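Quick one:
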Amino acid sequence: MKRKLIILLAAAFLITSIGTFLPVSKAQACCSCKKEVQKGLERNWWEWASSTVKVMVSFFEGEFTTHKLFIAGMMWEDNILPSMMLMTEQLNSVAMQQMQIVGGYFDAENQLETQQLFQMEQAKIRKAYQPSQGVCEFGTSMKSLAASDRRSEITAVSLSERAIDRQAGNAFSSAYDGPTSDKESRVVQFAKKFCDVNDNNGGLDLLCDDLEDTPQRRNKDIDYARTLDDPWTLNVDFTDNELTNNEEEILALGSYLFGHQVFARAPSVSLRPEGNGLSGMQKKYMDARALMAKQSVARNSYNALAAAKSAGTPGSREFLVNILKELGVESVDDIKTMLGDDENDPTKKQVEPSYNAQMEILTKKLYQNPDFYTNLYDTPANVDRKTVALQAIGLMQKFDVFKSYLRQEAAVSTLLEMAVSDMQGDVENDLGRNEQ
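Output:
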């Protein structure tokens, strides 16, 4: 369609300008021969083999063919198409390279995020598991606390058993024969170990002629402050068969404080049953045992205090010594006085810190050291561990206070019972008379 349109346009152009392109024929000169001229022109234009139209058509077809070959072959196939193919290949390569770069960015981002996560977790682990001297102080200071607590319980039971044996006149006790043997043994002990010749206006020189040269023990059988209240640790251990100075002093002081006057021993014959009821001596003996029970309640607090300060078990002494040195206690004698080490004791054995001494340091002395507060500039995990340790120590202290309340409650209950015992007896007598 395009080809025909081009031919028609070319023909119209040639017709309008035929006079310019065609040579003037002889027949044209003759005006009378127009038809001949017209026929000649038509033949010259259309019919001859070399007519203008055919020549033009052939020319234009050749030109168009040449142009088509130039455009399709030389320009497109030989130049444009290979260039575009190369460009497409280059663009694909660049695009793939760009995607590889973008993928590398994504890989790098994931890798960096993963490394950052690992580093954060490593930092958390280092913070959480960083060794802390402050945390170790709690662990080492209470290393033997549980064992010392258990040993103090044994000491309390032993003191209670000894007091009951003395009051009940058990065999092989100092009061086996009643007040006479009890006071005689106590006088002998006083004159030999606790006597102070300056007492009684210097009139004890005859009584204390066999006094041992131990001035530090003078009057310790009646001095509650020096004997029990002031020391942190006492060389008291009833699990062995060796009698120490502190054990003698605690037992002597307890004898003066509770049950100074023991009961007279009833003859065994007088305790023989008479008939179906109780004899008079049997009733008195039961009343005496009731009074012993009340005394044991009051004496229980004394036994608990002495037991808490009794010698503990090995394990924490060297650490407690270092804590006291950091607090400024440089004197070895002062440290021994606090933690317990009587050089004048005949046993000469190493005294381990008591439950009371360990709790004294854990609940009070440890926090008087400024290093404790500077060590709180620590990792959050270690601060949390210290907080838990302080809570545990607080619970132990509260439990000790709770046991003290229980002893106080038992003592108050006993006092109330004694206060109403007379009234109870009156009520029982009235009920008996009414029944009769």
